Amino acid sequence: MIQLPLSKLSKVGTTIFSQMTQLANENQAINLSQGFPDFPADPQLLNLVDHYIKKGFNQYAPMGGMMPLKEEIAKKIENSHQAVYHPDTEITITSGGTQAIFTAIATLVKDGDEVIIFEPAYDCYEPTTELFGGTVKRFKMTAPDYSIDWNEVKKLVSDKTKLIILNNPNNPAGKILNEKDLQELVSIVKGTSIFILSDEVYENIVFDGKQHLSVCKYPELKERSFLVASFGKLFHVTGWKIGYCAAPKNLTEEFRKVHQFNVFSVNTPIQLAFADYMKNEENYLHLSQFFQQKRDLMRSGLSGTSFELLDCEGTYFQAVKYDKISDKKDIDFAHELTVNHKVATVPFSYFYEDRLNENVIRLCFAKEDETLEKALENLRKL
Ligand code: GLN
C-alpha cells in the first residue's frame, strides 16, 4: 500500500454530525443531532422539479448558474436587505453552502495568511483555511450568552489578516449579530484590505420579531464580502445540496475561477424549479414563524426539567446546559443520552478547537412535532 507522506488534514476525522447520526441509527435513537428536517418538502416544489426534469433540462447549466434563479436571488436580497447584486456577474450558484465556503476560502487564502473565526464555529472553516496554508485566529464566545467582545477581536487583527469569517445566525449557539456588532465590524475593517466571508445560511430563521442583519446592508462590509446562503435550509431540502454566493463583481470573478475547476456548474432542473418557487415570497418568508412554533414546543417541553435553556434567537438549533443532570463531559453525556435515553444531540465542545467543555449540547428542532414530542418525553425523564 502506498503511504501518504503527510496528511494535509492530520487533526481531522469524521465530522461530529456524521458520528452522532451513525450512533443514533445504531441505537434506534431519535436523531436531534445532525441538522436536517425529517418532514417533506412542499409538494409544489417537488412538482416543479419533476416538471423541469421531464421537460428535458438534462445538460450543463452555465458555470455561474441559471439566469432565472440568479434573478430571483437578486430580488430576494434586494427586498430583504435593500442591497443590489447584479444577477449575472455577482451571484454564483453552488453545490450547497459548504462548497461556497470552501471556494471562497480557496479563492482568498494563501500560505501565511491569517483568518479570524468565532467559536463555537461551524466545523469546516478551520480545516478549509488550513488546507490552503492559512492560520486560524479564534475569538471564543462562551455560554450562556455567546456575546462578542470586539476589543478582543481587534487584538486578533494583524497585517497578515486576510479574512474574517462570520456565521450569522450562529450554528450551534442560535445567536444573531446585532447592529452594534455589525458597526464594530465596520470599524475594524474600514480602510483595510480584510475580506469577509459571511455564512448566513439560517438568515430566514430568526425569532421573536428580531431582524437578521446581513453584511450586505452595510456598504463598507458588502464591498469586501462573500455572502453565502443555502436552499437546503430555506426549502427543507438539505440533500439537494444547492446554495449560492453573492459578492461584488471583482470578488465573484475570482470566486468563479476556482468554482469552474471544482464544481463547474450545478444541476440544471432544480435551479429552474427553485426560480419558479421563489417567485412566491411566502415560500420563504413564513419560515421564521414555522420554526418558532417548533422552537417553542421544544422550549416549553423542556421547561420544568433540569436542562437549562440558553437563548435561541435564530437557526433550528436549541442549546441546553445540563450541569444539574450530569457532571460528565459533553461528548460522554451526548453518548449516554443516545444509547440510554434514545435521543441523539451534538456536544458543543466539537465547535471549539481546544474542545472547551461547558456542559452544553445542541438539539435540532427541524423535526415533525411528533418526533419532538417523543424526544421530549425521553428527556423529561432525566
Ligand atoms: N449543517 C449541519 C449541522 O449543523 C451538518 C451538515 C453536515 O453533516 N456536514 O448539523
Explain this structure to me?
The chain has 382 residues and is an alpha/beta fold. The chain is built from 16 helices and 13 strands. The strands form three sheets. A seven-stranded mixed beta sheet has the order 2-8-7-6-5-3-4, sandwiched between helices. A four-stranded antiparallel beta sheet has the order 9-10-13-12. β6 (195-199), α9 and β7 form a beta-alpha-beta unit. The chain is globular, with a radius of gyration of 21 Å. The protein starts with 15 loop residues before the first helix and ends with a helix. The mean pLDDT is 97. The structure holds glutamine (GLN). Glutamine binds at residues 15, 17-18, 34-35, 171.
Number of helices: 16
Spatial strand sequence of the major β-sheet: 2-8-7-6-5-3-4
Assign an overall shape. globular
Could you name the ranges where pLDDT drops below 50 across 5 or more consecutive residues? none
Cα end-to-end separation: 49 Å
Q: Main β-sheet, in a few words?
A: 7 strands, mixed
Backbone structural class = alpha/beta
Radius of gyration: 21 Å
Associated small molecules:
glutamine
- Regarding quaternary structure, what we see is single chain
Number of strands: 13
Beta-strand fraction estimate: 5-15%
Order of helices and strands: HEHHHEHEHEHEHEHEHEHHHHEEHEEEH
Helix percent band: 40-55%
Mean pLDDT across all amino acids: 97
